[in-house]
Amino acid sequence: MCISNKMPALASLFSLLSLRGLLPPMALLLETVFILLFTFFTEYEDPAVMKNIAQTDLYTEFQDVNVMVILGFGFLATFLVRYGFSGSGFSLLVAALSVQWALLLDGFLFAFRHGKIRVGVRSLATANVCAASALISMGAVLGKTNPVQLMVMALLEVTGFMTHRWILHIFLSDHPTQDHPIQPIMLLHVFGAFFGLMVSWVLNRPGLEHRHEKDRTDRRTGLFATVGALFLWMFWPSFNSVLLDHEDKLTAVSSTYLSLATSTVASFLVSAVTSPRGKMNMIHIQNASLAGGVAVGVAISVADVPWVAMVIGLSAGLVSSLGFRYLKPHLQVVFKCHDTCGVLSVHGLPGILGWAFFILIRTLSPPNAQRGPSRLGNSPGQFSFILLVTLSLSLSLGALTGLLMKWSLWRAPQDRKCFDDQAYWEFQHLAERK
Amino acid sequence: MCISNKMPALASLFSLLSLRGLLPPMALLLETVFILLFTFFTEYEDPAVMKNIAQTDLYTEFQDVNVMVILGFGFLATFLVRYGFSGSGFSLLVAALSVQWALLLDGFLFAFRHGKIRVGVRSLATANVCAASALISMGAVLGKTNPVQLMVMALLEVTGFMTHRWILHIFLSDHPTQDHPIQPIMLLHVFGAFFGLMVSWVLNRPGLEHRHEKDRTDRRTGLFATVGALFLWMFWPSFNSVLLDHEDKLTAVSSTYLSLATSTVASFLVSAVTSPRGKMNMIHIQNASLAGGVAVGVAISVADVPWVAMVIGLSAGLVSSLGFRYLKPHLQVVFKCHDTCGVLSVHGLPGILGWAFFILIRTLSPPNAQRGPSRLGNSPGQFSFILLVTLSLSLSLGALTGLLMKWSLWRAPQDRKCFDDQAYWEFQHLAERK
Amino acid sequence: MCISNKMPALASLFSLLSLRGLLPPMALLLETVFILLFTFFTEYEDPAVMKNIAQTDLYTEFQDVNVMVILGFGFLATFLVRYGFSGSGFSLLVAALSVQWALLLDGFLFAFRHGKIRVGVRSLATANVCAASALISMGAVLGKTNPVQLMVMALLEVTGFMTHRWILHIFLSDHPTQDHPIQPIMLLHVFGAFFGLMVSWVLNRPGLEHRHEKDRTDRRTGLFATVGALFLWMFWPSFNSVLLDHEDKLTAVSSTYLSLATSTVASFLVSAVTSPRGKMNMIHIQNASLAGGVAVGVAISVADVPWVAMVIGLSAGLVSSLGFRYLKPHLQVVFKCHDTCGVLSVHGLPGILGWAFFILIRTLSPPNAQRGPSRLGNSPGQFSFILLVTLSLSLSLGALTGLLMKWSLWRAPQDRKCFDDQAYWEFQHLAERK
């Protein structure tokens, strides 16, 4: 609102436009820009090079991550009773755009050599992992934003996340061409969650302060969301291992699996014990089961015995389901921040918990020189500082993005049209019958 | 009808038979014949041989293609509001039969050595790709045919497609044992789509000329179809790369991914801009998103820089969603050709577009001697001739198949029972209640 | 009931407890014990070792098996009209616990060296395969038991199954450290099915003797169950090959695929021919299609030409769908044994059929010294004896487990609350509206 007041002429011009006047030109503009950038700055990786680096491993894992980004996040977002088309459809749109943009940014910032970015399965995997952060943020504002707002948010989020990675990269490594000391997987859950929460807080408006009657799940959409949740569960081991070196990959797979198994049990435990009649809540199970994957992903380089991964998973499952039961309702009432998919409890808190474990274990048992991101030094303070940087950047960039998205130009959905597919999708028979 | 008039005695004999009298004997006969043929003419590939040829790659990709054929096409076909069991169930039946038949035909025509066909992951992958053409054709007649008609159509389609490949193989390669110069993936979309459309045109009957009230989607079946569409989307990179040589595989994966990403954005763009109120149509998104995979699959050998794949994907997405919005309704009214799943727009037009790009790029930059199907020569005329052959064969074989399927022996469903599972499936409680 | 009578004081104490008083403490206790055992007795496999043994193959196949266990079995169990959350949710809980327990037991019994179990992708794959036996048993009692009973059953089932494997291992191999002569895959379907049937028989109570009105499927849940069934179908080749040596893997993949294809056709055939009006039953298709995978899995080491796998698949499909049509109703009426998911027809009978084929083929063509489990000798009697041991152990351990589960402490659901999610899950809006 603050921005639109400053340019009333422009705003009144654009206010004539419906979604039809916004989405198509924006999509066309973005694709034109992307294709031009790809034309001048990219080429495929040389197949001969790829042959040597055990690309097959990577291809399999890329496919798994691809499944998580396209199907997993998308269908986890179908839990709302009347928002299934939007949940899965807009996720697909956001993922398609974010991956293209992440490919370019990752190339420019980290792998720009001789004026070219090399596009291959490896860079696609990195771009997919980074695009996931945009899908996480999207979870916080789902149902209350239109697809154009989501596109804007996703592009800014990916830009912010890549810049954040680049800043850490510059400050933490001695030589800019060195491998990243901090894996993107350690940052993306915390960054994505708090970015999204901040956007949601800025976008909050009086009409949405009470629980919206369509902001709920039912038997049907609950099962569709379970499909999404299980695909995230099943392929999380690949997500946590795809960007690691071959040696560490298989240990990461086992750690992630064990952590997911224990956080699943923890989610059932908490969901039953915190309900007056011992009934479980499917939304808790769908989401808190995944918290183990989030937390252990952050601490993957220090989880070198199975029980550590299991303890991390159990704690993450407990924290996450407690967050769903007690924190999510209060967040809305006290902080005026509505978190549709509960990204604070699925990604935010377990991500911070993973950092806590990471710092704790690194402090207790410093790594030897050969393994792990030892260039960072071992001081807990240095790691805590990185976490603080991540939190501050995500909150401040989220606030800026939220302000931009509040601009009336974007024509956010009216309160009564929130959480409803009918605002965006044609339903064949409805039109004919009525 | 024309055939049944010629043999009234036979027709009246068979007209006593319901589906119960047709499907089981036909299934039994086919399986008996298949098992006999497998007994005399097949053996497993020698595992020792397979060890050397990086079979692991192939196994992963075979699984991906398997997912597309069994789940992807099947669930994309569940979009009809009361035809979900038939869409997924008949697809499974047709796939199971077509793959067995394609294994045999592919072996007899292309890999018959010392009286034996070698069955292995490689031949299963080829058979799956070819069986996909039958599933494409099925999309045009879905809801208006019974499973026996679909079985007949699938077997004839696979036979026609294999014969078509064999004709090209004989005419285009100098030595019959040489590798195929034209990949099956370049032919199957165009062949499958126009074969199916021709069948649908021949089967057209007055009772189906108006839009059938059950020929629509809803919230529930729309989401099931989205599951199918997303699985096709995610594993299309494997579909386009599975039959290529190891060197070209990974480039094909990246090209297909980029093409799908841009066609997805294009489908949202067109769906929103062509709707009076800027609303999108889920059917357009589900289908036109995949058009990029179709088009780039045809041109995969010439898409050697990323932006080419993106331009192909964007154009294919535009053409496909425009086809859904404007061509599909007219096709029914003007040409009396009802296309249930819109295969013209998903496979037909994008396939032709892919050929246009292929011919254009080959003309502009002729390949050097080492790479690609250079035995074909580089003349655009020669490629256009191949496309013409594909179109003519698919249309003429489709017409013949349609005539055969029109035979009253098969007892096609009555108009009012079209697009309805109740004609073919037991519903437990309905029987008990009523 | 017999047990609870003996300790009335304890029972009356616990009878105050609802599910809320049982599930959380039990989950907490189990996870504490598991984590302690993992702490003292496990370590990750050395990545350097794993590098040499073509781990990539294994990783891909592990993921496929993971998909079957987490999604496949879980969603196949969503077919009940009001039990979808429980079907998929409890499967996830049971799988998460069973895999942890199977990892430990498999390690202690078969790979305990220098006081440590090595956890890696290989042991996770084995644990997943063994956990599948618990999910099979669960199918027999689904809807009539609460999650605590299921947890108890799963842990005892896995314990029984592992002990069974260990007994065979000790008696059949000359040196205890030798490779297992009988693959777990040959035992688990028969063991799981008859264990579950026996539990169901013991738990039978008068109130459930008539068909429960919620014990049925509908259009919506039928499609969800189809998703599960198709994922089992697609990844069954990996399930049957994951624990084999590299040489035998790819032949096993082809055999399983061909067997599934023929059993699919057989299931359509039988379902149509046994229905008065030629209508098919989706439950038959979903389940009997998979029978080929079960049967060929048992006989995988003797299916060395394609037609054998196809004949096994066809027979298994016939037996399984006949079992669904005629045996399942009689089992309930005559033997007072209600089999919710029809595990007798999907796993029990096809498993025995697979053994029959295995014994028959081994008798007709004894293997040469190098290949297969030749240490067993070739006598049909010896194999029949193994099958008998499997059957006796599964039935007797199932009976004991059933007696334990009958204890009123566990508070099995009341008759009218069976097959209903509302007994276990919160439904947001129901509470608010009413």
Automatic annotation (TrEMBL), chains A, B, C:
Annotated organism of origin: Conger conger (Conger eel)
The protein, known as: Ammonium transporter AmtB-like domain-containing protein
Family of the protein in this entry: Belongs to the ammonium transporter (TC 2.A.49) family. Rh subfamily.
Main localization (coarse): membrane
Membrane topology qualifier: Multi-pass membrane protein
Purpose of the protein: Functions as an ammonia transporter. May play a role in the elimination of ammonia in the gill.
Residue ranges occupied by any Ammonium transporter AmtB-like domain in the UniProt entry: 42-405
MF-aspect GO terms: ammonium channel activity
Transmembrane parts of this sequence: 65-85, 92-112, 124-143, 184-203, 223-244, 256-273, 285-302, 308-327, 339-361, 381-404
Highest taxon in the source lineage: Eukaryota
The entry's keywords: Membrane, Transmembrane, Transmembrane helix
Gene3D superfamilies assigned to the protein according to its UniProt record, in alphabetical order: Ammonium transporter AmtB like domains (1.10.3430.10)
GO cellular component: plasma membrane
Pfam families in alphabetical order: Ammonium_transp
GO biological process: ammonium homeostasis
